[in-house]
Automatic annotation (TrEMBL), chain A:
Family indicated by similarity: Belongs to the eukaryotic ATPase epsilon family.
GO BP field: proton motive force-driven mitochondrial ATP synthesis
Coiled coil (UniProt feature): none
Recorded GO MF terms: proton-transporting ATP synthase activity, rotational mechanism
Any one of the GO CC terms: proton-transporting ATP synthase complex
Source species, domain of life: Eukaryota
UniProt protein name: Mitochondrial ATP synthase epsilon chain domain-containing protein
Pfam families xrefs: ATP-synt_Eps
TrEMBL record, chain B:
Keyword RNA-binding (UniProt): no
Protein name: ATP synthase subunit gamma
Domain of life, source organism: Eukaryota
UniProt xrefs under PANTHER family: ATP SYNTHASE GAMMA CHAIN, ATP SYNTHASE SUBUNIT GAMMA, MITOCHONDRIAL
Location relative to the cell: Mitochondrion inner membrane
Subunit structure: F-type ATPases have 2 components, CF(1) - the catalytic core - and CF(0) - the membrane proton channel. CF(1) and CF(0) have multiple subunits.
Alphabetically ordered keywords of this record: ATP synthesis, CF(1), Hydrogen ion transport, Ion transport, Membrane, Mitochondrion, Mitochondrion inner membrane, Transport
Pfam families: ATP-synt
Molecular functions per Gene Ontology: proton-transporting ATP synthase activity, rotational mechanism
């Protein structure tokens, strides 16, 4: 019997979900350090024939408009 | 010979620029240590990948295979030739720089990570662009970034037999060079001699193909990040040196001008006094 999650999402998403569960179960100090390793603010854009589509954010709940640091 | 006022203004602005580039160099130097440590541990993921490929993939240089090119760079500038080196490598591989045979099919789809390279590739190869990502590379890249990129690539309907990852290799703290890494997809893994002799399950092969892609992307991201920071440090170092030279030359000019003005005034006074 193969797992049913394979039809819904990829292995990478599965690994990210399990990693998030592990991180949330850590002790407070370790959890704060580990949270940073699970952060991603990637935005992507599909392109068709040289024209870019809409820029979409992958994790909208993380967009809290922090100040932009200097390089 | 500019007036004294103009020289003074120019001197002030160059001094400000020197302060800025010096502080950017300091920031880059402090970030470099952390980035290099992350790169060392990130490279292990890439090495795990190459272990697998060594034992499974046969050497088939088939130029008719469909390849997806992923260009790894970042959004920020002021880092020397980082973005243009990967863009040039890609263009050369696709045969866009005149006079060389393309090693990859010129119709191959391209995915770009990073706004700067996206702009450069868009100018020449905009028909090949399929997917672009940004907001990666502000801080040390995480595996979550790489997993998201791999996920999005797999979810989009880009067809490919293997993936070519173009990124900058960290040669030393003062030099880097663009390289490419090839990552096979699920079908290729299934047909390889190693997998067939072990009767791998399809599910597991599919998982492995996805994970292997995320691994390769993570290793490339970590290395590219370290290259970018070291390049920025070197670029800002050179800029500060140049600014320092300019300040020296301008100060000389300014002082000479100032002394000439004083001498002229003295001459006027003396001739005026002697005329009395």
């Amino acid at each position: 019997m193969s797992a049913t999650w394979r039809s819904v999402f990829t292995y990478n998403k599965y690994a990210q979900i399990t990693a998030r569960a592990v991180r949330n179960s850590l002790k407070e100090t370790e959890r704060v350090a580990a949270e940073k390793r699970g952060l991603t603010t990637v935005r992507y854009q599909h392109w068709e024939n040289g024209v870019g589509g809409q820029q979409t954010v992958l994790n909208p709940e993380l967009e809290k408009a922090p100040g932009k640091p200097a390089v | 010979m500019a007036t004294l006022r103009e020289l003074e203004l120019r001197l002030k602005s160059v001094k400000n620029i020197e302060k800025i580039t010096k502080s950017m160099k300091m920031i880059a130097s402090t970030k470099l240590a952390k980035a290099q440590r992350a790169m060392q541990s990130g490279k292990e993921y890439g090495l795990a990948n190459s272990e697998i490929f060594q034992h499974t993939i046969a050497e088939e240089k088939d130029a008719s295979k469909k390849k997806l090119v992923i260009v790894v760079s970042s959004d920020k500038g002021l880092c020397g030739g980082i973005h243009s080196s990967v863009s040039k490598f890609t263009r050369r591989a696709l045969g866009q720089t005149g006079g060389e045979e393309p090693t990859i099919d010129p119709e191959s789809p391209i995915a770009v990570i990073g706004d700067k390279s996206k702009a450069q590739i868009q100018r020449v190869l905009s028909k090949n662009l399929t997917l672009t990502f940004n907001q990666i590379g502000r801080d040390v890249p995480t595996f979550a970034d790489a997993a998201s990129v791999a996920d999005l690539i797999q979810k989009s309907d880009v067809k490919y037999d293997s993936i070519v990852l173009v990124h900058n290799k960290f040669v030393s703290a003062i030099s880097y060079e663009p390289t490419s890494v090839e990552v096979p997809n699920e079908a290729q893994l299934k047909e390889s001699a190693g997998f067939r002799s072990y009767e791998m399950e399809d599910d597991v092969t599919k998982d492995l193909a996805e994970f292997v892609l995320a691994n390769a992307i993570y290793s490339a991201l970590a290395e590219a990040h370290a290259c970018e920071i070291s390049a920025r440090r070197n670029a800002m170092d050179n800029a500060s040196k140049n600014a320092g030279d300019m300040i020296g030359a301008l100060t000389m000019q300014y002082n000479r001008g100032r002394q000439a003005a004083i001498t002229n005034e003295l001459v006027d006074i003396i001739t005026g006094a002697s005329a009395l």
